[in-house]
DNA sequence: CGCAGTATTGAAAAATATCAAGAGGGGTGG
DNA sequence: CCACCCCTCTTGATATTTTTCAATACTGCG
């Protein structure tokens, strides 16, 4: 495999221009690829946590099971994502992860992250940026779940997937594959599967979104984003913010701090 | 001010033993203290983001306003917390922050964090651990909002505050001050203030929680934790996990990696 | 004393869940 | 190729939870 094919190198490159050394460091995270099958569980809640992984191919989701038998799907992971960072400070898994599709994942130990902290300020900063972005995504989802109607929640979810997928693949019109059952969508959005079905029916009647098995068509993406009150800043405003500064300093430059007191 | 009084040094010490040099680095973040008044807004959504701050005294909360006039309170910050990390990768604020009490906060520029990355692997790892812990808190809150009844949500919130406060102060029995109106509680829990009131009434009838203005008394904390399905791992399992490893390596030791393939 | 923000309570309305029955679809074994 | 079955989805009826609206009480404060 060429470094150019590395999802993780591509992901990091979104944030910052990388040196060759940085690329090699990153590339090392994607050794020991493992084939996994759709439905396979990478780990369960309460398992010992001492590794992360990157997802090179396929989709996955993380979840938490609740006492009453229901569960919450926390995140949908796409190729290039790093999984398991949540538990960096923990000895146990706090959420399970299972594959949606067949795929390939690459495990690496927590310790490898420390190597990165030690050897590259740039990568460290990018990791921090990624973590910060994750947190923003999570926050946005929290607002979505806490404040919006079922109709808006589903609209928001669909539009978010559309945007995320559009960042790597170019989506012809508003079409994309969404390999999630209505029950899984319900688990992700805090709604019953029945209500998901009804909400899709409403979308169809209004001609806003069409769904056929696992294919979604956003007839009018902008209108969908509007009804969801989708704030696209939280997905798009995270590219190369203050990293020009890093690169500058790394090259030995001096930055005079202008602090407005 | 002595370093021992520094909230942030104390916070970081929870995760890892710190060298003197590390303490000085951290201590430097708490310069330029600013007095702020209850109700004062530190920043609004969409403001330019180029600083973090630590909160040395007082409480604060972050929030997002929504199109329909409602708002979501995202986090409650206590002394020692770092505020604004969410926007590390962003140029704009994605949430506002306002003070609950009078207090003292210390601003420092994003760039100061890069200095830390550059000069201390230990602090970098701790920062990462803190970010990871934040994310876990957020996740737990997300589950709470998405999956639980009003009754459970409020129970969970109260118990979480109880635990967090208990980590710095020792709370006599289940008593603590909670300087939030029922409207603010509603904003935090995705409920109407009316329903918060009703839920407190239920608690009172059951003799589970008493509330008088801004004072809360958890009559039976353990029972409260049980009804909330509170998972205390997510608050307590984050102290000194793999950092013995860091210290070891920092001292020049060699760690042989045992990777189970 | 009066006023503004905050809390309580009741009644009605809205949103969503639950239960139940049936429809469609795709895979598997006969 | 067909029959069957399991799983997912759809739709209707009903139940539950929570919101909204409105009226009234409470509290601290100028």
From TrEMBL, chains A, B:
Cellular component, GO annotation: cytosol
Q: Which GO terms describe its molecular function?
A: DNA binding; DNA-binding transcription factor activity; kinase activity
Q: Name one Pfam family in it.
A: cNMP_binding
* UniProt feature coiled coil, ranges: none
Identify the residues that the record assigns to the HTH crp-type domain, covering every copy: 148-222
Q: TM spans, by residue?
A: none
Q: Keywords in alphabetical order, please.
A: DNA-binding, Kinase, Transcription, Transcription regulation, Transferase
**Which domain of life, per UniProt?**
Bacteria
- Is Transcription regulation given among the entry's keywords? yes
Does the keyword section mention RNA-binding?
Answer: no
Record's protein name: cAMP-binding domain of CRP or a regulatory subunit of cAMP-dependent protein kinases
Q: Which organism is it from?
A: Modicisalibacter ilicicola DSM 19980
């Amino acid at each position: 495999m060429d470094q150019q094919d590395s999802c993780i190198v591509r992901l990091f490159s979104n944030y910052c221009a990388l040196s060759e050394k940085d690329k090699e460091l990153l590339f090392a995270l994607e050794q020991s690829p493992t084939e996994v099958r759709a439905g396979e569980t990478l780990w369960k809640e309460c398992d010992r946590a001492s590794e992360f992984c990157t997802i090179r191919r396929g989709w996955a989701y993380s979840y938490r099971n609740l006492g009453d038998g229901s569960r919450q799907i926390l995140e949908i992971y796409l190729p290039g994502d790093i999984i398991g960072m949540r538990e960096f400070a923990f000895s146990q898994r706090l959420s399970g992860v299972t594959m949606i599709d067949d795929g390939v994942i690459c495990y690496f130990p927590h310790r490898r992250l420390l190597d990165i902290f030690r050897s590259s300020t740039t990568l460290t900063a990018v990791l921090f940026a990624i973590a910060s972005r994750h947190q923003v995504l999570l926050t946005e989802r929290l607002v979505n779940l806490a404040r919006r109607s079922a109709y808006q929640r589903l609209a928001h979810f669909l539009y978010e997937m559309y945007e995320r997928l559009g960042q790597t693949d170019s989506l012809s019109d508003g079409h994309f594959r969404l390999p999630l059952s209505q029950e899984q969508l319900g688990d992700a959005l805090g709604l019953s599967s029945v209500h998901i079905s009804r909400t899709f029916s409403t979308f169809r009647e209004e001609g806003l979104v069409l769904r056929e098995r696992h294919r979604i068509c956003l007839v009018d993406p902008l209108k969908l984003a509007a009804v969801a009150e989708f704030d696209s800043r939280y997905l798009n405003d995270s590219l190369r913010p203050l990293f020009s500064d890093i690169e500058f300093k790394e090259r030995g430059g001096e930055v005079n701090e202008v602090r407005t007191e």
